[in-house]
Structure formats: structure tokens, C-alpha cells
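Final report, closing paragraph on structural work. Over the funding period we assembled a curated collection of sequence-structure pairs, and we close with a single example.
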Amino acid sequence: MPWKDSNGAWHDSSPLDCLKPLSQGQHIRFGVVHVNYPDFSADLVAWVDCSNATG
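Its predicted structure, as stored:
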């Protein structure tokens, strides 16, 4: 999924730099899309914005 780093650049294939293991306190926005299928529905993460992440 695409994600935006703290410098405002978008990425689509590298690990998210704002979600490091055992870290906490980041301010991150997630874009979520609700998808309806014939047999079920789901909320899917469409993008992650780490541009305001600190911590």
C-alpha cells in the first residue's frame, strides 16, 4: 500500500519508517476504504500517512 514519509514523499514498496517494532507515540493517519462483496464486506487500509509521525 502507498505511504507518505516524514518528508512528504510517497512510497509503495519499502517498509513504513514510522511503524518500527516496539515503537510508540507516532501520529499516523490511515486511509480506509469500505468494500462490499456479494458475500461479505470489509474495511481495507488504502494508504498510510507518516508525514506527522514522531516518536
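The chain is about 0% helix and 40% strand. The first strand starts at residue 3 and ends at 4. We thank the funder for supporting this effort.
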